[in-house]
Amino acid sequence: MATEASNEQSITSYDDPEAPWNKEFSEADMANWNNDVIREFRENGGQVGGDYAGATLLLLTTTGAKSGKQHMVPLGALFRGETMYVSSFMEDRYPAWYHNVRADPRVTIELGTEKYAAVAEVLTGERYAEFAAWAMAENPLLADFQSKTDKPLPLVVLRRESASATS
């Protein structure tokens, strides 16, 4: 499942059976999951209900690393001050959106009712280490998940393109 934002007041552990990412879904449900969230997001000015009520979601459109086609995924928008970033729980491999932004950092973001061009910066090295330490301290769910996997969580900073860069 692509969306990982949650109501942190009620979910305190990645293993919580009530967490949306731990619920059972049929293959048909999974195939429609993102489309349903995207539809609800757009119909309600960026707000969704259910498991993600109250969470800040964004729609991230990337260009497929292999296909070259546009792909959209709903993700939880996370913030460090004014800096917006995304991450993702992953099972045995990194999500497609992460591979896509590594290949082409030009993305489109929909946040609330606003849509704009942005650049995705995949954090690596010392920048990743510093940012990850802060993110894990600030987000118990990310820290809990990271403690259960050997792979570093994907951390990607999203920056709005300046007007001069788009004209």
For this entry, give a set of tags.
167 residues; alpha+beta; 30% helix; disordered N terminus
What is the topology?
Blueprint: H1 27-43, E1 57-63, E2 70-76, E3 78-80, E4 83-86, H2 96-103, E5 106-111, E6 114-122, H3 125-138, H4 140-146, E7 156-160, H5 163-166
Explain briefly what this protein structure is.
The protein contains 5 helices and 7 strands; from the N terminus they run H-E-E-E-E-H-E-E-H-H-E-H. The chain is an alpha+beta fold.
Structure description:
- With 167 residues, this protein is α+β, with helices and mostly antiparallel strands.
- It has helices at 27-43, 96-103, 125-138, 140-146, 163-166; strands at residues 57-63, 70-76, 78-80, 83-86, 106-111, 114-122, 156-160.
- Strand 3 (78-80) and strand 4 (83-86) form a beta hairpin.
- The longest helix is centred in the N-terminal third of the chain and has 17 residues, at 27-43.
- Residues 1-9 have low confidence and may be disordered.
- The percentage helix is 25-40%
Question: What value does the average pLDDT take?
Answer: 84
The count of DSSP E runs of length 2 or more, i.e. the number of strands, is 7
SSE succession: HEEEEHEEHHEH
Structural class: alpha+beta
Shape: globular
Strand content: 15-25%
Biggest sheet character: 7 strands, antiparallel
> What Rg do the Cα atoms give?
15 Å
Biggest sheet strand line-up: 2-1-5-6-7-4-3
| Helix count, DSSP H or I runs of 4 or more residues | 5
First-to-last CA distance: 36 Å
Uncertain residue ranges? 1-9
